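[recover] target loaded
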């Protein structure tokens, strides 16, 4: 993802704000102006295995699903940064398919394509 895109924020299923994500947005900060230590800290806290998996972690999804079923609510996430990117950029907010399953399938489909995002693009 090297280009700008438009993001729509939703609240209670209703769109509340749409704005560009990229250089034309007034709050945009280029990645090279963010400290490499902060970049690595965020990467480690959000997805410590980012450089070692292929977009999703089946064990994390399984554990999250088991826990959510035990507590009878969505309480634990198992998504990777790649899955969060797919959800936030490529999936429509109104889709009703189980988000974790949908993101896993999208990541698996992406792995089978001839072109791949570089880790630095995500």
């Amino acid at each position: 993802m090297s280009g700008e895109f438009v993001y729509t924020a939703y609240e209670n299923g209703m769109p509340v704000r749409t704005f560009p994500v990229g250089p034309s947005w007034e709050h945009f900060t280029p990645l090279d102006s963010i400290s490499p230590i902060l970049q690595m800290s965020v990467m480690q806290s959000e997805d410590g295995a980012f450089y070692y998996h292929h977009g999703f972690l089946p064990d994390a999804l399984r554990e999250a699903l088991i826990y959510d079923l035990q507590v009878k609510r969505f309480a634990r996430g198992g998504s990777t940064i790649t899955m969060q990117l797919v959800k936030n950029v490529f999936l429509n907010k109104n889709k009703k398919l189980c988000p974790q399953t949908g993101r896993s399938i999208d990541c698996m489909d992406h792995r089978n394509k001839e072109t791949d995002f570089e880790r630095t693009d995500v």
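[recover] notes: Strands lie at 5-11, 14-21.
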